[in-house]
């Protein structure tokens, strides 16, 4: 079975989703997906009920920078599918205002801590995470969850924070959501531990799976920043609203962050839904496939020096 077919099967994407073919019937450039204006503002609703009506198809190949033509506007305009030879356009997101206060006071203990983390190699970083007591989460954790994977990987995935299973096992995405994530990776030719590195914004589990607090994110961010700097991935795929908003320092809803390419420290970032949310929401599984097609395009272009 082709990767594409496997992915469609894994995600349960209905038969009406149509793949666009390159000239000559080669690999698809992008999947043609129904899109809705509501979807651009939806923010990973907790309900499993889809809010997406049956609207005409739009292709991500049509997207442009948000300032020119937001995904929502494109959806409203119900742009027809372009001819197969139309070039794929990777939309770049405009700069977003930062919601996170400027870094620590120069010379402060926090500034010194961040400077030290910024020079660590992998073993030192892993040890620093394992021994971290910078926020209260150290009191309730069983294990820190540093991240897992190939430290030369070209792909990096970033989730929110460890859950119960991850806290026990010390590895990210080992529960049901992790199984879906592994299947999604497999469909892209990636595998945990081989050509992708998986990490979280937070390295310790928030008790009861509550949302992370801003101070916890602030204390943990230097670790993720250093992981990214050491890894230098070609593309970062951010999983879910919380991770996307933390990494990109914005309160923009995930529906608006999807479909364009953001950057973090100069590295392209593609936003998609969290696998735990995808387990509940069939329609957004299809959108996740669209996002991964975009990420693959970004990855391949980075490799080609584009
Ligand atoms: N959800 C996440 O965001 N990360 C994990 O590691 C597990 C669940």
SSE layout:
Layout: H1 3-11, E1 18-21, E2 28-34, H2 37-41, E3 57-59, H3 71-77, H4 109-117, H5 122-130, H6 137-140, E4 148-149, E5 155-159, H7 164-169, H8 176-187, E6 196-200, H9 214-231, E7 235-239, H10 241-248, H11 254-257, E8 262-264, E9 267-272, H12 275-278, H13 282-303
Parallel strand pairs: 5-6, 5-7, 7-9
Antiparallel strand pairs: 1-2, 2-3, 4-6, 8-9
This protein binds uracil.
The site of uracil (URA) has 10 residues, from loops.
Instruction: Count structural domains.
Output: 2
How big a fraction of the residues is strand? 5-15%
Task: Give the CATH H-level superfamily of the largest domain.
Answer: Uracil-DNA glycosylase-like domain
Largest sheet: 6 strands, mixed
Helix share bin? 25-40%
Strand order of the largest sheet: 4-6-5-7-9-8
Walk me through what this model shows.
Helix content is 38%, strand content 13%. The chain has 2 domains: 3-78, no CATH class; 109-304, Uracil-DNA Glycosylase, subunit E. It is of the alpha/beta class and 306 residues long. α1 packs antiparallel against α8. A hairpin with a 2-residue loop joins β8 and β9. The strands form 2 sheets. The protein has a 6-stranded mixed β-sheet with strand order 4-6-5-7-9-8, with helices on both faces. The protein has a 3-stranded antiparallel β-sheet with strand order 1-2-3, covered by helices on one side. Bound molecules: uracil. Uracil is lined by residues 159-163, 166, 172-173, 177, 200.
């Amino acid at each position: 079975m082709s990767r594409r077919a496997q992915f469609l099967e894994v995600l349960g994407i209905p038969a009406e989703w149509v793949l666009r073919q390159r000239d000559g019937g080669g690999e698809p450039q992008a999947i043609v997906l129904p899109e809705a204006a509501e979807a651009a503002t939806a923010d990973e609703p907790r309900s499993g009920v889809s809010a997406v009506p049956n609207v005409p198809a739009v292709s991500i190949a049509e997207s442009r920078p948000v300032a020119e033509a937001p995904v929502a506007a494109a959806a409203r305009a119900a742009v027809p599918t372009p001819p197969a030879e139309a070039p794929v356009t990777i939309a770049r997101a405009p700069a977003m205002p930062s919601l996170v206060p400027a870094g620590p006071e120069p010379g402060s203990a926090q500034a010194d801590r961040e400077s030290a983390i910024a020079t660590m190699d992998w073993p030192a970083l892993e040890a620093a995470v394992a021994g971290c007591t910078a926020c209260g989460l150290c009191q309730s954790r069983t294990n820190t969850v540093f991240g897992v994977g190939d430290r030369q990987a070209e792909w990096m995935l970033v989730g929110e924070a460890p859950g119960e299973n991850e806290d026990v096992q010390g590895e990210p995405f080992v529960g049901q959501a992790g199984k879906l994530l592994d299947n999604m990776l497999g469909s892209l030719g990636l595998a945990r531990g081989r050509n992708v590195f998986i990490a979280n914004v937070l390295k310790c589990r928030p008790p009861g799976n509550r949302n992370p607090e801003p101070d916890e994110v602030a204390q943990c961010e230097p670790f993720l920043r250093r992981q990214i700097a050491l890894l230098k991935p070609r593309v970062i795929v951010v999983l879910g609203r919380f991770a996307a908003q933390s990494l990109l320092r914005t309160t923009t809803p995930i529906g608006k962050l999807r479909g364009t390419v953001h950057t973090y420290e100069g590295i392209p970032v593609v936003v998609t839904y969290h696998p735990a949310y995808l387990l509940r929401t069939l329609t957004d599984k299809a959108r996740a496939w669209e996002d991964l097609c975009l990420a693959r395009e970004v990855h391949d272009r980075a490799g080609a020096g584009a």
